[in-house]
Design a protein that fits this description.
Blueprint (H helix, E strand, L loop, with lengths): L1 E5 L3 H10 L5 E5 L12 E3 L6 H10 L2 E4 L6 H8 L8 H7 L2 H10 L7 E4 L2 H11 L3 E5 L9 E4 L2 H4 L2 H4 L5 E5 L5 E9 L5 E3 L3 E6 L2 E7 L6 H14 L4 E10 L2 E8 L9 H4 L4 H9 L12 E8 L5 H6 L3 E5 L9 E9 L2 H17 L1
Parallel strand pairs: 1-2, 1-4, 2-3
Antiparallel strand pairs: 5-8, 6-7, 6-8, 9-10, 9-11, 9-13, 11-12, 12-15, 13-14, 15-17, 16-17
Helix pairs in contact: 1-11
This protein binds adenosine monophosphate.
Adenosine monophosphate (AMP) binds next to strand 14.
């Protein structure tokens, strides 16, 4: 089976690393000459709106999937005429726009911060009067790794901020004084079968995910699964979906969903019986889903900007290096390490060991 992937970054690369043993082959459509997936399959170097090359992709593959959600809606609609596309155009339409996404949470009874659609500075001033400060202004589309958003704490932060974010449609959200951030990686097959990985605790630095630790028996696991199930059913979703939540006193508030494999699920490559990448491919290909059980304690540390000395990283016990083969650049995710251990105290020591290598890099 040949899988077409829109996007050729590290997520596409890890999809191919998981699918190759299943007998799958891959074609990646990505305009970047140095797309890091190209070592693992055919690279169709073209813009996402290039209809000739999209048609070529559709003719060559059995199905198409995505490694990022900001794909133009026309691209998805065009491909869907010729080849099965998972997740669906509708799932991408909702997940790529924070207004549609939060409105869906509200309709499904899933708690989420108060929010308002902002089309102008006048809208922003009115919404701040209702929602209050602090609040967070975010662009409706194209935001990632903390980009395209600003925390508003005082009236001075509000003035001129709509223009500062580019005068594009935005969303104002009430600020959530959360105690932690967790994500749930879910997978749903073509037949509707659904499985969940254990909730993951996430820590960010300057808006970029730094550390994910898979939980054991998190008290809100069932609640998170209930919220995610509502979304998966509503979207008749096929594939892996990541659901990010804020932890608040005794509950969860939905932050956002990503209709794809997710950075906070990278630990599953070695930390679970069947990784998020393999399960995504199983789901879209109509194959039986794999076990989402954790094997021992597990964590993931991102390498941002550069990868520490390889010999030192892999010398740490049960530490698994994933080097994306990308050029090093400040603020860019260029690799990660998965850590595994039988107990949490050992895991914490491994995390400290990798962190000290990052500090030296
Ligand atoms: P996002 O791109 O929406 O995932 O936001 C990036 C990060 O900003 C989140 O992981 C949170 O740490 C923080 N953040 C986003 N929205 C809010 C909010 N409404 N209240 C408090 N912190 C937020």
């Amino acid at each position: 089976m040949k899988i077409g992937v829109i996007g050729g970054g590290q997520l596409g690369r890890m999809l191919a690393l998981a699918g190759t043993p299943l007998g799958m082959t891959f074609a990646f459509l990505d305009p970047a000459p140095d797309a890091c997936s190209q070592a693992l399959g055919e690279h169709i170097r073209a813009d996402y709106g290039d209809l000739d090359h999209l048609r070529q992709l559709a003719d060559e593959v059995d199905l198409v999937t995505f490694e990022f959600e900001s794909v133009p809606a026309e691209t998805v609609a065009f491909l869907s005429q010729f080849v099965p596309v998972y997740p669906s155009a509708e799932a991408l339409r909702i997940a790529r726009d924070r207004w549609f996404e939060k409105s869906m949470f509200k309709d499904l009874g899933i708690p989420t911060p108060e929010f308002a659609d902002i089309q102008s500075q006048v809208d922003l001033d009115a919404a701040v009067a209702t929602i209050g400060l602090p609040a967070v202004l975010k662009t409706r589309t194209l935001g990632y790794d903390g980009k395209g958003q600003k925390v508003l704490r005082t009236a001075a932060d509000v003035a001129g901020t709509f223009a500062e974010l580019g005068s594009v449609p935005c969303l104002l959200e009430g600020f959530v004084p959360f105690s932690g951030e967790v994500s749930l990686i879910a997978v749903r097959g073509r037949d509707g079968e659904t499985r969940f990985y254990p909730l993951v605790h996430n820590s960010h630095e300057q808006g970029i995910l730094r550390l994910s630790i898979a939980s054991s028996q998190h008290p809100q696991q069932k609640l998170a699964e209930d919220y995610a199930s509502r979304v998966l059913k509503q979207l008749d979703y096929v594939g892996v979906l990541a659901f990010e939540f804020f932890e608040i006193d005794g509950g969860l508030k939905a932050n956002e969903i990503a209709p794809r494999v997710h950075n906070s699920g990278h630990w599953t490559i070695e930390g679970s019986e069947c990784s998020q990448f393999e399960n995504h491919l199983r789901a879209v290909a109509g194959l039986p889903l794999g076990s989402t059980k954790k094997v021992g304690e597990s964590a993931m540390l991102n390498f941002i900007g550069s990868v520490p000395a390889v010999d030192k990283v892999i010398a740490i016990d049960d530490c698994h290096l994933h080097h994306y083969g990308k050029a090093f650049k400040v603020g860019r995710k260029v690799g990660h390490a998965t850590l595994r251990s039988a107990d949490r105290a050992t895991l914490d020591r491994q995390i400290t060991a990798v962190e000290s290598l990052i500090d030296q890099a």
